[in-house]
Amino acid sequence: MSDLFSKDNDVVEVVDGNVVSSSRDKKPANKKDMIKNVAIAFLSVMLILTFFSNTIMNYTLPQVATQQISRGSVSPQIRGTGTVNAEDPYNVTLKETRKVSGVAVKEGSHVEIGDVLFYLEDKESEELKTARENLEKLELAYEQSLFSGDVPDDVISKVRSGNTTSYDTYQIQLKAVNDRYDAAKAVADAATKAVEYLTDLQNHDKNEIEYQTLTYNYENANADYQKKLIDYTYDPNDTEAIEKAKKEWTHIEDENKRETTELETYKSQVGIGYDQKLIEAKANETAAKKELEKAEEEKDKQVKSINVEIALCDQRDSIKEQKEKIAQLEKESVGASVKAPVAGIVSQVNKASGESISADETIAVIQIDGKDMTTSFSVTNAQAQKLHVGDAARPQNSWMFSDDFRATLTSIKNDKTDPSGKKLLTFKIESTDVTPGQSIALSIGERAVDYDMVVPNSAIKTGTTSKFVLAVKSKSSPLGNRYIATKVDVDVVASDDNYSAITAALDGDEFVITTSNKPVKAGEQVRLANE
Known about the structure:
With 531 residues, this protein is α+β, with helices and mostly antiparallel strands. The chain has helices spanning 31-60, 126-146, 153-160, 167-233, 239-332, 381-384, and strands at residues 2-5, 11-15, 18-22, 63-68, 70-74, 77-83, 85-86, 90-93, 98-103, 110-111, 116-120, 337-339, 344-349, 356-357, 362-368, 373-380, 392-395, 406-414, 422-430, 439-445, 449-456, 461-462, 467-477, 480-495, 499-504, 511-516, 525-528. α4 packs antiparallel against α5 (239-332).
């Protein structure tokens, strides 16, 4: 007996070569049995879902941690960060350029007076070397100016002897030569004006004589014309009238000729007189101008002498000052090391081995023993009203400081950046762990106050218009307790680092949600982390 498959994949039973049966010949299953089987399966599934529904639902709900509202204390804290400043820190400097060969201290080290701070290369400073070179240049320039050939011998002697003429003496000398120059100039100007006046007067008189001469010439020409006119206007037979008229005009001509002759004589005499006066006036002018030139030369010589003397004295004094500078540099010259001039804590070390130090450059800063260190930061006016001078503060990162740390509030003043809204708090810092320039975070707070309802800060949520908490309400069901998140508006009356005191429509023993593994909305069902 064997089973074969037909073309239609029907099972065929073969016995001794004959087909006994096939699946096509089987009868259909009983319909009632099928309905029974389906019902049993459905009821089984419903039983399983009912039994595990609570467990399945819990895995889909937000898991929350809660804490019960309780009575407790809150200590509000005010925090701020500032940079530590030293009062009157000592800046270690050198007066010369040197090179560091080694550093003997570190920042934060305490030093006593005389302790070595830096080791220096044993080499003459650049300032001293440059000062000596400048001295040589000054001395050369002084000698060249002194013996240039333009300096009076008495000035050379006076300058070389170290004497210096006072400004009062210079003023008297200048006044004397200026007075002589002004007097000579006044005489020369007067002489020149006299020559100009005589020349103008001579020209005026010459012009006057020329005018008179021309006038007489005109009258003579007119008389001659009148005599010729008589021959045409008088009766030719009236010889007596004609002769009389011509005689009158001839008399006028004679008088004019006489006046003209006298004018010529006067002109000659006047010319001679003016020439003599002009010769004398011009001679006076020439003499006055020579005196003016002499006075001007004397003035220029005196001014030049004073200027040369002042310049030479300045060069001489510059040489003296340069020598004093060299002596001071030699006196202040640092040896092979730089030592601490004061006792205190080294707050800054600004140079490393191999680096050069410039003159007057700060190479280290020492916080002098006994001097205070301070820090400041701003707070709101409302925060400042809760504080008083003398309140103690503590570092926020207290593990970084030893037990001797002290921070005391020393002043509360208006903040210049916002006088109406902020106050500047200043603290005195006392600690061996703190150095100037260090940033330090402080906290200072009010005394602890007890409140009826205190919750963790993480329980406080901020809404659009107010703050609220999500309280957990429990509801019983056939399958166990269900927990619902309920929104309750609250007023936060005080807070510190961890807790907030609230007032709300609560009994005071409810549990509030502090954290959750996903966002929770009011009215949602949640599952507790410990269930």
